[in-house]
Design a protein that fits this description.
Structural class: alpha/beta
CATH architecture: 3-Layer(aba) Sandwich
Oligomer: single chain
Radius of gyration: 16 Å
Largest sheet: 12 strands, mixed
CATH class: Alpha Beta
Strand content: 25-35%
Number of strands: 12
Low-confidence stretches: none
């Protein structure tokens, strides 16, 4: 095989479009519910796999077609106020839990020391994944009291579990953009560009 690749995944259409624009990617193929974009690079191809939250299919496709150098996922999350995070910040969590308190630890590859003040980036932290949308302040307060997490989303635990099953934890990085507004996406993609 020996097609070395830096894999990027997202399930957010706005993030997908920003990545395609930033890295000048072109559509390679559509297969089942996945869209695959690529750009040839000297050291490793940049591959974006966009699709639904079916991480099993995404990882299976990536492993069957590429020698994975690094695996990135980028999506949004909401904060739980414990770190004074604000919209626009970016967190790279290293601990992922679900509401049953199952845990996956991720030791991602980071080549440099980053500083939140310079990059709006925070390394490490705990991300809680919930299946249901959280809509009220009361629900958020209940989550804060029940779990020790800085941010929450709907998908990261399942992805981390799939990465663990496929022995990709040591090559992976999950990037969480704090907030759901499209204005915040550019900063998250800038962080991704630095880390690639």
């Amino acid at each position: 095989m020996n097609i070395f690749a830096k894999i990027i995944t997202t399930t957010n259409n706005d993030i997908k479009n920003e990545i395609i624009s930033t890295f000048n990617l072109t559509l390679k193929e559509k297969i089942n519910n996945l869209e695959v974009y690529s750009k040839l690079e000297v050291d490793a191809n940049i591959i974006l796999i966009f699709g639904e939250n079916n991480f099993e299919d995404i990882i299976k496709y990536a492993k069957e077609n590429f020698e994975i150098v690094k695996f990135f996922n980028i999506w949004d999350a909401l904060h739980l106020d414990s770190l004074d995070l604000s919209f626009w910040d970016v967190m790279i969590p290293n601990t992922f839990i679900n509401k049953e308190n199952e845990v996956v630890f991720l030791e991602y590859l980071v080549d440099k020391n980053y500083d939140l003040k310079n990059f709006w980036l925070l390394l490490n932290g705990i991300c809680l994944s919930l299946e249901n949308e959280v809509k009220t302040e009361e629900e958020i307060q209940e989550i804060i009291e029940k779990y020790s997490a800085e941010i929450f989303d709907k998908e990261s635990f399942n992805l981390a579990k799939e990465l663990e099953k496929n022995e990709l934890l040591d090559k992976s990085c999950i990037i969480k953009i704090i907030g759901k507004e499209s204005d915040y996406i550019k900063n998250g993609v800038n962080i991704l560009e630095i880390m690639l």
